[in-house]
Amino acid sequence: MTNQIWVPRKVAGEEFYADRLDEALRTCQTPTKEAPKGYEAQFMPEIIDTRIASPGGSRIWQTWFTAPSIRATGKSRQGKPFVVYAHIPNYFSKHKNITKAIEQGLVNGAGRMPQDEFQRLLDLKDDERVFVVNYEVLRSAESGVIPVSKALAHPQTIPFLGGRERAEAYLPQHEKNYGSKIGNWHLNDFIEDSPLARALFVDGGYVGGLCGCGILNGDARFLGVRAEGAAQKFSPSAEQLTNLINEYVAPINQPEVHNRISAVFR
């Protein structure tokens, strides 16, 4: 087993807003001439990492964002109720399934998802990208504005943000940008006949809260990165490479190296 190391990367992100969540996600994911494979909507941990790495007052702090991460409530195969926070591709990270759920009829704004998909997420619990919370513990927890100093102990905070380490890094930055309070909202989505799920939102308002209560037919704003994009890491220009190499190549050899770099960029 290897230790995971988070390596920050700089890529160009785009906002995708629409007055309905499925439409915003469809626009994000649809291929275009500029992005032949479309854009990948960033999951909540990536949005939070972007906030942590960004200065106060930047766009990522100024407004709210939606993630294809979900909060799903349902029963395990043993019949016990649980709440899953999933930051991986899932039933509702496909815009067509959101549209289908809306057409079938939402339950207090949440969409029905297949039982086998809910069980799949339960089975993928790793406390890194998929978190499982005791239903009764979360149901009895406060939903509203709480002190930042108490946020880490709230049963939604760590799974919503994507792990304890990330939460510990994020909360001080939240306090710098929004003050000593934070919203931590959730609803009781348990029904007997079907799992229910919602997309996660992080607020950019006066308390910058964690919203596990958004409706699937409401407006949404996704942060998208080109799907090749992870492929689309920083690509230096010939001039930038030349300037860098000059620091390490003897002057007598620089002309030949410069010519070879220029040939690559032709």
Tell me the layout of helices and strands.
Blueprint: E1 13-18, H1 21-29, E2 39-41, H2 44-53, H3 59-62, E3 65-75, E4 81-86, H4 95-104, E5 111-112, H5 115-123, E6 130-134, H6 135-139, E7 144-147, H7 148-151, H8 157-161, H9 164-178, E8 181-186, E9 196-202, E10 210-212, E11 220-226, H10 238-245, H11 254-265
Helix pairs in contact: 1-4, 2-9, 10-11
What does this structure look like?
With 266 residues, the chain is α+β, with helices and mostly antiparallel strands. It has 2 domains: 222 residues, no CATH class; 31 residues, no CATH class. It is globular and about 75 Å long. The termini are far apart. The protein contains 11 helices and 11 strands. The strands form 2 sheets. Strands 3, 4, 5, 6, 7, 8, 9 and 10 form an 8-stranded mixed beta sheet that branches. The protein has a 3-stranded antiparallel beta sheet with strand order 1-11-2. The longest helix has 15 residues.
In short:
With 266 residues, this protein is α+β, with helices and mostly antiparallel strands. It has helices at 21-29, 44-53, 59-62, 95-104, 115-123, 135-139, 148-151, 157-161, 164-178, 238-245, 254-265; strands at 13-18, 39-41, 65-75, 81-86, 111-112, 130-134, 144-147, 181-186, 196-202, 210-212, 220-226.
Protein traits:
3-stranded antiparallel sheet; alpha+beta; 11 strands; 2 domains; 266 residues; single chain; 8-stranded mixed sheet
Q: In terms of quaternary structure, what is this?
A: single chain
Q: Give helix % range.
A: 25-40%
Number of strands: 11
Large-scale geometry: globular
Query: Helix count, per DSSP?
Result: 11
